[in-house]
From TrEMBL:
CDD domains for the chain: LuxR_C_like
Keywords for the protein's UniProt record, in alphabetical order: DNA-binding, Transcription, Transcription regulation
Species whose genome carries this gene: Psychromarinibacter halotolerans
Protein name: Autoinducer binding domain-containing protein
SMART domains: HTH_LUXR (SM00421)
Keyword DNA-binding tagged: yes
Superkingdom of the source species: Bacteria
Residues of the signal peptide: none
Length: 237
């Protein structure tokens, strides 16, 4: 997977417009051996951009009916920073159940996994995969591929920002050895408490290192900081 992800990242670097980005997203779907991949972004002015492998009919219906208002994935991920399995969200309301019924009828799939992204100037984006695998298969799949999905999400977002604004660059400073240690443990899937214990420091001190690394990397949140550090080769996993 790593070699194929590197090839995808190389393709993204040369992407010249949103039509090419859509094409590469379809390639990413095939690379991950998944039914659907979607990137959906809303900037500070409310402008929306979406690139998806869902059917054209479902995309037209989704945006035409402004389903983002009731979509538990959008509403739930907006309040979160970590990747979200759709099973963790609240689908108990009638509107949510009706929406899911329409989505499944449109071929969206029975399971989904979304990575929330927060960019500059109030930008909010979601990178999502969905499929109709069985529960046990889905659990194993997302556990195995979380790291690659987070990386892909942030690379796609960076390219979309570059296409929209002309640049996605921010000045980056070197991380300290301790900041690298903290980001490395988080990238390996350890919780903040586990990472703090492994390093022999308090969770408060750990948060200080995380915030310092996030500021240096120009990251919007902890996951973004870890993804950027990984993509820049600052971490060895």
């Amino acid at each position: 997977m790593k070699g194929r992800l590197d090839s995808f990242i190389d393709l993204l670097q040369g992407t010249r417009d949103f039509d090419e980005l859509q094409k590469h997203l379809k390639g990413l779907r095939d690379m991950f051996d998944i039914e659907h991949v979607t990137y959906h972004s809303v900037n500070s002015t409310g402008h929306q951009y979406a690139s998806t492998t869902y059917s054209a009919d479902w995309s037209v219906q989704y945006f035409g009916e402004d389903y983002a208002r009731i979509d538990p994935v959008v509403q739930g991920c907006f309040r979160r920073f970590h990747p979200v399995d759709w099973r963790q969200l609240d689908w108990s309301g009638k509107s949510a159940r009706d929406f899911m019924g329409e989505a499944r009828a449109a071929g969206v799939g029975t399971h989904g996994f979304s990575v929330p992204i927060r960019g500059p100037s109030g930008q909010f984006a979601l990178f999502t995969i969905s499929d109709a695998r069985r529960d046990s298969e889905w659990e194993l799949y997302t556990t195995e591929h979380t790291r690659e999905l987070i990386l892909a999400a942030h690379y796609v977002n960076q390219k979309a920002l570059q296409l929209e604004r002309g640049s996605d660059e921010t000045k980056v400073q070197n991380l300290s050895p301790r900041e690298i240690d903290v980001c490395t443990l988080l990238a390996m899937g350890q919780s903040r408490a586990q990472a703090a214990e492994a390093l022999g420091i308090s969770e408060h001190t750990l948060r200080v290192y995380i915030e310092s690394a996030r500021f240096k990397l120009g990251a919007s949140n902890t996951i973004h900081a870890v993804a950027k550090a990984l993509s820049m080769g600052l971490l060895v996993i």
